[in-house]
Amino acid sequence: MTDAVSLTLKIDPALKETLKNLAQENQISLSQEVSQRLQLSLSTQQHPAVDNQSVLEEVAPQLNAKSASEEADAQLNASELKQVRALLKKSKKKK
Known about the structure:
Layout: H1 13-25, H2 30-44, H3 53-73, H4 78-94
Helix pairs in contact: 1-2
């Protein structure tokens, strides 16, 4: 991650514990886990313009069908690929 900046926020303690457990499972830091999840949620979520709402409602089923089939073709998503790279980097350091 290049040029990381600090961000302080308040979250529910149960959510923090869940994120902490997920980070441990993925063998990454809590900060990396949160950052990856935020990036993934922002990259997959569409933010339609207000003026295009009626058009989006008509086209959304077609877009969802296309993106679902494209996602099924993909072997690894961005988050999974980052995790694999991190694991490979760690295994190289151990040698």
